[in-house]
Design goal:
By secondary structure, the chain is an alpha/beta fold. It has a single domain, classed as Alanine racemase (TIM Barrel). The protein contains 9 helices and 8 strands. An 8-stranded parallel sheet has the order 7-6-5-4-3-2-1-8. α4 packs across α5. The longest helix is centred in the N-terminal third of the chain and has 18 residues.
């Protein structure tokens, strides 16, 4: 079942790449595995999936131990509590949800010297919603510059979760605005756009997404 879902989503991604003139395989599928069992993750792995995103640190660490034999790239995509930064810094390859210099500095200072630099994305609250984490677009340039000085982090790009919309053009607008803002920073190292989920996948790919985060459509409804 999971294998069929992965194949269907990958087909949708490949088709959108073609339709919107993106390079083949420019977009990575990140399987959002929060609340899903290690067994479900293993099933997805056997179907070829290698990148998994987790929102809750303790839950993720338990799965990482159970799946230690698998060559999985783990992404942290949830809100970051200060008391969890050391665990996140040392048990993930990517962190998508950095929204302050304080959090970035803690991740940098607590990343073990034996590990390669941690790939991070800045979470941007692109729709300006009070209920969502993330920086405003006006903060993007200054925070990007500040983080560039941290030796144990590599700022790769941005992450966003826009307000849900049904209309394709309305879905596209916040992605387009964020992509333009990053382009204006003129920093070639910022090559990652983590946006797009099941409902707005095509719009995200049309506007430059490089990582789409898919959970329910891949694993089924959360229990």
């Amino acid at each position: 079942m999971i294998k069929n879902h992965i194949n269907a989503i990958q087909s949708q991604i490949r088709r959108a790449e073609w339709v919107y003139s993106r390079l083949p395989r420019a977009v990575l599928l990140l399987a959002v595995s929060k609340t899903k069992s290690a067994q479900a993750i293993a099933e997805a792995y056997q179907a070829g999936q290698r990148h998994f995103g987790e929102n809750y640190c303790q839950e993720a660490l338990a799965k990482q131990i159970e799946l230690g034999a698998y060559d999985i790239t783990w992404h942290f995509i949830g809100p970051i509590q200060s008391n969890k930064t050391k665990l996140i810094a040392n048990h993930f390859s990517w962190v998508h949800s950095v929204d302050s210099f304080k959090i970035a500095q803690r991740l940098n200072d607590q990343r073990a010297s034996s590990l390669p630099p941690l790939n991070i994305c800045l979470q941007v609250n692109i729709s300006g919603e009070d209920t969502k984490s993330g920086i405003g677009l006006a903060e993007l340039a200054e925070l990007s510059q500040s983080i560039a000085a941290l030796p144990n982090l590599i700022l790769r790009g941005v992450m966003a979760v826009p307000e849900p919309e049904l209309d394709f053009e309305k879905q596209s607008q916040p992605f387009r605005k964020l992509h333009k803002a990053v382009a204006e920073l003129n920093n070639p190292k910022l090559d990652t756009f983590s946006f797009g989920m099941s409902a707005d996948l095509d719009a995200a790919i049309a506007e430059g997404s490089t990582i789409v985060r898919i959970g329910t459509a891949l694993f089924g409804a959360r229990s």
